Amino acid sequence: MMRRAAMAMALLAAFVLLTIPSGAASEETGWAELFNGKDLSGWTAMNEGKFEVRDKLLCVGGGTGWLRSDQLYDDFVLEFEVRPLKDNFDSGVFFRAGLGGKPWPEKNYCVNLRSNQWGALLADGERLTKTKQAAAPVGQWTKWVLTVEGKKGSLLMDGKTVWETDELEPGRGLVGIQAENSEFEFRNIRIKEVGHLNLLTGEAPTGSHFTTIVGAKGVWTLRPDGVLECRNKPGQATGGWIGTKTDDWANFDLKLEFNVPPDGNSGVFIRRPIKGDGAYEGMEIQVIDDDAKVFGKLQPWQHCGSIYREVVPAVRATRKAGTWQSMEIVADKNIVRVCINGVEIVNADLDKYTTATTRAKALKDRPRQGYIGLQNHGSGIEYRNIRVKRLPD
Fold first, then answer.
1. Closest CA to 70 of 93, 99, 92
2. 140: which of 32, 206, 241, 354 is 20 to 30 A away, CA to CA?
C-alpha cells in the first residue's frame, strides 16, 4: 500500500457511476478464454513436459509433466478441442488438481486422452468411469465439454455423452494439460465458472456492477477489451478506490487478474467501510511490484498478497511486473486465504490476530462484511476478469 502524505487529502467522498462501453461483455457471457492463441500466459509448466504455441495452437511435444492453470476452479464448464498427432497416444486434462506430485499432480481428476481409454474419467490415476468411446483418428479434431458442479460431473465429445457421475469430491483445484511422451494439439480452450458474478459486466445472477468510486475522478476506465484501467493524469491527485455497489460482501470467493507495472502499487480491499482507510478499517490484500526499488526494502508484510501490515505471505508466488497474474481471495467467516498464480500464500484465522495498533483494530475485531474495492495508488494498474461468488453465512 505504501501510503503517501498526499493520499489523505485525495480521499474525497465523490460518487459516480462507471460507464461500461458497448462490447465490454462477450456475446456469450461468463466465458473466459484460457488460451489466447499467442503464448502461454495464464499457464505454468510443471516438471518435464514440453509445451509451446505454434500456429495459434497449444502444442504438447512430449516429455512427462503438465501445464497447469494459474487459477483454481471448483464448479465450471470447460470446453476444448484436441487432436492427437501420432499413434498410440496418451495425454489428459486434469481438473480439481493439487500442486504436489511428480511428474503429474498426486491429487487430481483427469479426462483420459489415451488411445485405448479415450475419454475415461480417472481419479488420482485410477479409473472412475469406463468408456466405450472409440479414440479419434490421428489428426482429427474433437470437441469436448466437461461440466463439474459439486459431486456431479459429465463429459460430452462432439455433442455426445461420454460419461456422467455423481462420485466427485467437491473442492477447488487446478485445471491442467498432461504431457506423457505423446504429441497433441489443443485449441479453443475456455471456461465458464458456475455461480460467479462478473463485477465488470454485471452478469447473472444479480446484475451488480463495480460502480462506487471514492476519491480522484476520471481515473478508472473500463476498456472495450474488458480491462479495468486506472491511470492518473499528470498533476492529478492520487488516492481513492473503486468498489462494489453494495457493502454486503461478507463471505465470498473473489478471483481476478492484475497487471502491476514496474514500481507499481495497488491493493484489493475486502470488507471495508465507505469511510476511513481501507487497509485499517477493513483489510487490504496488497498488490505491488515485489521487485520495486522505489519503495526501498519492502517489509515482509508489504509483499504482494499479504494482508497489509498483518499477515505475511508464506512464499513468493509473483512474477515479473508488467505481466498478467492471477489472484484469488477467499473470505469465509474468520478465515482469509490468498492464492497468487495458483499457489496459496496466506491462510489466516482472523480470530488469532488479537493485537491492535494506534491506527487499526486487531483483525479479529474488524468488520466481517463491507465493500470489495480496488485501490488507486497513483502508479497505474490494470485489472480484468473480476469474478466473485458468495459463500454460505
1. 99
2. 32
pTM of this prediction? 0.88
Question: Domain range holding 106?
Answer: 31-193
**Is the CA virtual torsion 230, 288, 258, 352 positive or negative?**
negative
Same domain, 174 and 230: no
The number of distinct structural domains making up the chain is 2
Asked if 236 and 297 count as a contact pair (C-beta separation under 8 A), the reply is no
Q: Which residue has the cell 488516492?
A: 239
- Which of 193, 227, 259 is at the close of a domain? 193
- The per-residue pLDDT for range 132-158, each reduced to its tens digit, is 888 999 999 999 999 999 999 999 999
- Asked if 117 and 186 sit in the same domain, the reply is yes
pLDDT in tens, 8-17: 323 222 223 3
Query: What distance in Å separates the CA atoms of residue 324 and residue 326, rounded to the nearest whole number?
Result: 7
Task: State the cell numbers at 87.
Answer: 499413434
Q: Hey, what's the cell of 168?
A: 466427485
Q: Give the pLDDT confidence of 176-230 residue by residue, as tens digits.
A: 999 999 999 999 999 999 999 888 876 544 444 667 778 877 788 888 888 999 9
Say if residue 148 is in the same domain as residue 276.
no
For residues 225 and 317, membership in a common domain is answered with yes
Any bridge partners for residue 253, and if so which?
330, 389
- Cα-based distances in Å from 219 to 157, 237, 377, 379, 382: 46, 10, 11, 11, 12
On the question of pLDDT at 102 being above 90, the answer is yes
- Quickly count: other Cβ atoms within 10 Å of residue 307's Cβ: 23
| Amino acid at residue number 147 | T
* Sheet of 283-288, strands arranged across: 210-215, 240-244, 371-375, 265-272, 283-288
